[in-house]
Amino acid sequence: MNKLTLEKNKKYLLACSYGPDSMALLFLLLKEGYNFDVAIVNYHLRKESDLEVAGLKEYCDKNDLRLFVKDVGEKIVGNIENKCRIIRYNFFKELCDQNGYDALLVAHQQDDHIETYILQKKRQNCPIFYGINEFSTINGMLVARPLLAFSKKELRQICLDNNVPFAVDQSNYDKSFSRNKIRHEIVSILSVKERESYIKKINEDNTKLNAIISSIDESRLSSVDYVLSLDNITQKYALNMQIKKINPSLYLSSDNVGQIIHLLKSEKPNIFSHIKGNIYFIKEYNLFKFIDYKLTKINYSFILSKPGLLDTDYFFLDFSLDATNRNVHDFDYPLTIRNIKSGDYIYIKGYKVSANRLFIDWKMPISIRRVWPIILDKEGNPIYIPRYKKDFKPDSNTNFYVKV
To answer: Which residue from 260, 278, 305, 403 has the fewest beta carbons nearer than 10 Å?
Structure first.
């Protein structure tokens, strides 16, 4: 029987669901003398959940184990699986911060490892690791998976042989879900030799994948020229590494990658294009990036009723003395300072010039344009737009500057 390869001088938090995998891990941790506490989340999505929490509490009390329970009061709707994941990992993070655990233990096992690999290949997505990694970081926590050498069948037998209670979620047998179909029609009937073959293939593919990822210069991921210089496979991983900076769970499909490569090759110097969900692609000359537009969409407006000082998240101004260098006079108050919008303009030497024309002339990055301010007089007429200079640095005499 495989033994756990954890450190006896560390303190762990076990994420438990009361299923056979996590209960087998709980038993093995007890048997081998590890220092750990237990945590479970009751989402109240199934009628059996209260009984399962009660069963776990009884087993923990019997074995003098500390148990933390989170009862979810609000109704979970929408993408239930993702929302539950967020809830439980936020809960585990709170416990780890409060109690100083060295790692969070989760009970992913060999069947999960193989299932994940098959799904990754089927979906042709772009993982940073094939299968399930033994160690990862989630919410700043070290997450360890000590059961990857155990099959699901072995873990269930451990529970049965040692009178360890557990419950089985019946939704795991619903073959309308791709993972369940793979689990029951492929993985559960694999022979020992076939399992070994899969594990060998996963290890080989991870070696190749590691070589690809290691070849990518992360300091140049924002460079259009650099990404276009890579071969097709490496491009795909470079772009996915870039988008995962926004959210580690995001990934780009082959169609997404093709769309982005087309945009990178465009001769247009500035591009703002939708990719998927709230994610947008921004190209600014030879640099590009992805943004979550829902999180970064900005609108602001401030009123300065008389000469004075305003220090905001977007700009600083001190008009308490003289502001005529910004075309502001005493009769213009109260002023409105807001971010520039489509259709805004300014008069320069008697000519009406659109703000967008100025941005193009100044070669202003498109991401900065969304926060650039305009000053309006008491009648709402535009009287000043600060000039953009790439290498501008304010000094003690600067009475108005943008914080970008």
So the answer is: 305
